Amino acid sequence: MPKVVIEKLQKKKLQKEIFVPGDKSISHRSIMLGAIANGTTEISNFLMGEDCLCTKKAFQSLGVNIEEKAGKIFIHGKGMAQLTAPQQEIYLGNSGTAMRLLSGLFAGLPFDTCLSGDESLSSRPMQRVIKPLEKMGAIIESNDGKAPLKIKAKAEGLEAIRHESKIASAQVKSCILLAGLNASGITSVVEPHKSRDHSERMLKAFGAELEENGLEVSINPESSKNLVAQKVTVPSDISSAAFFLVAAAILDDASFVLKQVGINPTRTGIIDLLENMGAKISFANELIVNDEPIADIHIESSDLKATEISGDLIPRLIDEIPVISLLAAQAQGKTIIKDAEELKVKESNRIASTIKLLRTLGVDVEETADGMIIEGKGKRDFELTNTCFDSLGDHRLA
Ligand code: S3P
Questions:
Q1: Which of 70, 119, 151, 272 is most buried by a 10 A CB count?
Q2: Does 325 contact ligand 1 (Cβ within 6 A)?
């Protein structure tokens, strides 16, 4: 972690204070928990992007009154029992988070739901949630393990399980914990490395009883049924800040302050990585808001050295790997990215698409089974080539 220092900013040619939009993962979860809690949940700095708006629409189609006023979202929740059957299938666009979390939440409801998505979402693996949900007694029809997911009514609720996940995935973990709200008994999830823990933090803030023991999280549905509405301020998204962090580091004579960014330790892999690579980076004005730590992040132009990105670090920066590849290209030496097979099943195959992008920019890169090796030549000796690139509809690449 960077030292907390409030330094005098040196005068730089490109000096910026930047507010990036609200965190996507936290925005989704704030709608979900607000919709099943009792009372009015007020959300500030909600990310009004298409993915989170799909989650909002999903609950409106289940009869929840959700309003937007002066840039804030107000959810008038009446508890899980008041959700009503939707008239048609629930379209979730491009959002893997919406589909996987909602499949868990809806699997124990007393009416049918059908979750569908765009072409990219319909090609992403859903067995990782279908299998454990089926163990809990859910009945789900899929298109050979992919969306659309037809989830059958389960008036009697689900059975608790202890699920040992082979992958570190917050979507899988959250799906099962949310399904656990409608199960009889204590549901637990164990993962191989810690994935983002926004669901755990927010469930607790809304009044759920959650226990964490190392890499195992358990939820008790009895004391978690009566969730209570909250005022939520969504931190700015570190995954969006990442683009500016990388830009400042690789540009000459730049100094950026990214304001009020979420620095939950399960998401700050990019900060640790920048530090390891030699970037000048520090935090100021650290605060805790709704159980989530936030800070202003200051970063300056830096000379970077190559590093290895693997193991526990991967889930802490999984979404930032496309932009991190540019850091590696501008660093001195070989950066090795491994243990990152999960990149193959994101909005695009992000190993293949990131390598394609790097090659278009003139970077030497080798593909490996679980990542890539990027040959960095240092920013003084190597300039990225101007190019035109097809982002394949993947926002992290665009
Ligand atoms: C997310 C979890 C991560 C991440 C995704 C958002 C979430 O996916 O890549 O962008 O909000 O839970 P996995 O759970 O598949 O690792």
A1: 151
A2: no
